[in-house]
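Below is how a single chain appears once it has passed through the pipeline. First comes the sequence as given, then the structure the pipeline wrote out for it. We keep one example in the README because the format questions we get most often are answered faster by looking than by reading.
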Amino acid sequence: PKGCGKSSVAKELADAMGMDYFAFDMGQAFKPKKMFVGGLIIGEDGKTQGVRSEFFKAFVSEKPTMIFLDELTRTPMVAANFLMTILDRQQSYIYDEDSGVRYNKGENVLFVAAGNVGFAYVSTQRLDTAFEDRFIKTRLVYMEPREEAGLICARFPGVSPEAAMELAHVAEVLRLAEQKETLTVSLSTRQVLDAAAYLPLGYRLDEVIERVILTNYVITGEETIARSLIQTL
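Resulting structure:
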């Protein structure tokens, strides 16, 4: 689901493994050749020069490297076709058609990707089955209230454990309502942290709920439903 920490997990994993980390938003890959290989520029001497992209440099790196493909389910189809060979486990390579050279993936380069799946994400697309098969998949979920309260306190030491737990319980109630289709919108960990950031500034919890949490429910009637659910806590 949205805002549950997918990108954070990838970064923490790279740090834990001592790997260089490069993140790329695949929803922006409308010019895949430029993104994956590079392009041409006119140098100071007026001559045309080839410049390798950041992706290419990470791909051929000899150092332990993690390439994180974010928003994978928003990848343009033309870029997905490029990725088929890039992500092949048997022979991962990039072919530069301008030079006619094949560049193999660095031995210690790994790929991690994240994407949203479901009807709620209208700008995403279902990945080709062969493309999906490039990955070992795992489903991430939102944290339990005690874990989320611990995250709040870790990010914002000025928030009391009691307030953090109350905020985490609010998130749990609203997420359960979305699962039961009482609400159409869930509350992400990202939104919970956005709300928690106001508590050390002197805002009361009820003010934060009213002005930061409930404003996520914009469909007619949903804010009233969300407010009534929170009032039961």
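The chain has ten helices and seven strands.

See the next section for the split statistics.
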